[in-house]
């Protein structure tokens, strides 16, 4: 089945105000930067964004924040973004902070047909407030529910016309789980190849989870913390 | 004299054992990787999705797709692997990682830890810290014994929002190595030249001092 779309405009087609979006990436690594830029252009707003981080002030999800298109963020870590902090402290932005492992598993569960699961993470902390607690093997666990999205927007290194995806290095992060959890999943890839080109043994995300795939026009791939050593 | 951050990292590195998979948090814990004892092999896990993390890249060889949980550019060692975030936390929650080293703002005598939020002031989020402390059997906290104003961070009970309850068993500070058991801090070692009295005076939680307390060998 051919999932290829020609333009980034088609990629975000159907995304409307107040929808829930999942966006892959960890920090600025592995984020769908072309689709984010297009959403900024499109101007739709009131989004609930599920993403591990909120970008930085002038890149990634930070651009949607600057443009006041996000109503609520569901993330695990939101440092390195002054505008985020300002909007959160002033009450303009709703924020749900959840442990990183629970966030990953909640996305995975959403895509895998598991409505909820118990995890030890967050027990005894404010994360556990209002959640069911149950003991297993003598240890308390809290009930966490699956996450779903109207659109999941992910970024892969290579993809084929069938929507099969291969990620590079740590740019994989949340992308595979989010790809599974979107009603419509849009994959932005650096290199789009014909079906049959990628080795089926090496596919990370099978095409069944992807409804639209396109090759991004340009990738800045900004580095958040450039650290090096000297020879 | 109290240890500096490097000294704390060097002391924690002595806790590493051959064949361990280890997760190092941001800050002082990251430095531990520089002082692996001779003759042992450990593999570093970074929760954003890499096992077999290597040193920082040489200038010009940075790869935007290859970072650690602190978002710093890194390299990989021979035999490294990449995986998604769900698999990464399966390694952590499933107790496949033998040691977790992380920083803290406060720890309590019952093993509670706070390190993610200062209400009204700093709200960055917990990242993977809550998953790490809730599951790991072997957690070492690297921290300063007191804050810049001299107020103890080794407490009866934490004042800041918790990251986890009853999970910390060992703490290495600039002044001491402490073990947490039976609702008290047990003094195991003191930093070179630091007296038991000084440690006592800077520890707000219950401190048990049993017998002779040796100096750390750094």
Q: Radius of gyration of chain B over alpha carbons?
A: 17 Å
Structural class of chain A: alpha/beta
Q: Please tally the helical runs of chain B, counting DSSP H or I stretches of 4 or more residues.
A: 5
Give the termini separation of chain B: 12 Å
Biggest sheet details of chain B: 10 strands, mixed
The separation of the N and C termini of chain A measures 50 Å
Shape of chain B: globular
Q: Which strand-content bin applies to the residues of chain A?
A: 25-35%
Summarize the biggest pleated sheet of chain A. Answer: 8 strands, mixed
Unreliable stretches of chain A: none
Strand coverage percent of chain B: 25-35%
- Total E-strand runs of chain A: 11
User: Which two chains share the most extensive interface?
Assistant: A-B, 59 and 51 residues
Order of helices and strands of chain A: HEHEHEHEHEEEEEHEE
- Put simply, the count of helices of chain A is 6
The average pLDDT of chain B is 96
Query: Oligomerization state of this entry?
Result: heterodimer
Note the run of SSEs of chain B as H and E: HEHEEEHEEEEEHEEEEEHE
Task: Please explain how this structure is put together.
- The complex is a heterodimer of chains A (231) and B (218).
- Chain A is an alpha/beta fold.
- Chain A is built from six helices and eleven strands.
- In chain A, the strands form two sheets. In chain A, strands 1, 2, 3, 4, 8, 9, 10 and 11 form an eight-stranded mixed β-sheet that branches. A three-stranded antiparallel β-sheet of chain A has the order 5-7-6.
- Chain A is globular, with a radius of gyration of 18 Å.
- Chain B has 218 residues and is an alpha/beta fold.
- Helices cover 16% and strands 26% of the residues of chain B.
- Chain B is globular and about 50 Å long.
- The model of chain B has no long low-confidence stretch (mean pLDDT 96).
- The interface between A and B is large, with 59 and 51 residues.
């Amino acid at each position: 089945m051919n999932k290829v779309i020609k333009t980034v405009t088609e990629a975000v087609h159907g995304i409307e105000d107040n929808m829930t979006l999942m966006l892959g990436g960890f920090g600025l690594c592995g984020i769908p930067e072309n689709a984010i830029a297009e959403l900024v252009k499109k101007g739709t707003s009131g989004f609930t964004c599920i993403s591990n981080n909120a970008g930085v002030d002038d890149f990634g999800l930070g651009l949607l924040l600057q443009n006041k298109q996000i109503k609520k963020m569901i993330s695990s870590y939101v440092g390195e973004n002054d505008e985020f902090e300002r909007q959160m402290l002033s009450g303009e932005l709703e924020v749900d902070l959840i442990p990183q492992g629970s966030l990953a598993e909640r996305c995975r569960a959403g895509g895998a047909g598991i409505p909820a699961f118990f995890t030890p993470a967050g027990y005894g902390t404010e994360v556990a407030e209002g959640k069911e607690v149950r003991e297993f093997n003598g240890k308390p666990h809290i009930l966490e529910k699956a996450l779903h999205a109207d659109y999941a927007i992910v970024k892969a290194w290579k993809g084929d016309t069938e929507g099969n995806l291969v990620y590079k290095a740590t740019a994989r992060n949340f992308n595979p789980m989010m790809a599974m959890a979107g009603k419509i999943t849009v994959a932005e890839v650096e290199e789009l190849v014909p079906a049959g080109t990628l080795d089926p043994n090496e596919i990370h995300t099978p095409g069944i989870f992807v409804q639209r795939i396109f090759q991004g026009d340009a990738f800045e791939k900004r580095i958040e913390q450039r650290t090096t050593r000297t020879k | 004299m109290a240890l500096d951050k490097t000294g704390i990292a060097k002391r924690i590195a002595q806790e590493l054992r051959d064949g361990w998979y280890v997760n190092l948090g941001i800050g002082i814990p990251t430095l531990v990787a520089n002082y692996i004892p001779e003759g042992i092999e450990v593999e570093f896990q970074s929760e954003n999705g890499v096992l077999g993390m290597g040193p920082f890249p040489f200038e010009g060889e940075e790869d935007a797709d290859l970072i650690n949980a602190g978002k710093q550019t890194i390299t990989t060692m021979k035999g490294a692997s990449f995986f998604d975030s769900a698999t990464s936390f399966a390694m952590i929650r499933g107790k496949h990682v033998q040691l977790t080293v992380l920083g803290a703002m406060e720890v309590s005598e019952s093993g509670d830890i706070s390190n993610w939020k200062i209400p009204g002031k700093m709200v960055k989020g917990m990242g993977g810290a809550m998953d790490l402390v809730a599951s790991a059997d072997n957690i070492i906290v690297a921290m300063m014994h007191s804050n810049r104003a001299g107020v103890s961070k080794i407490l009866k009970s934490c004042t800041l929002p918790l990251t986890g309850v009853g999970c910390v068993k060992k703490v290495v500070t600039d002044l001491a190595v402490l073990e947490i058991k039976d609702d008290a801090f047990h003094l195991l070692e003191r930093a070179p030249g630091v007296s038991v009295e000084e440690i006592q005076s800077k520890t707000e939680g219950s401190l048990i001092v049993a017998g002779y307390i040796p100096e750390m060998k750094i």
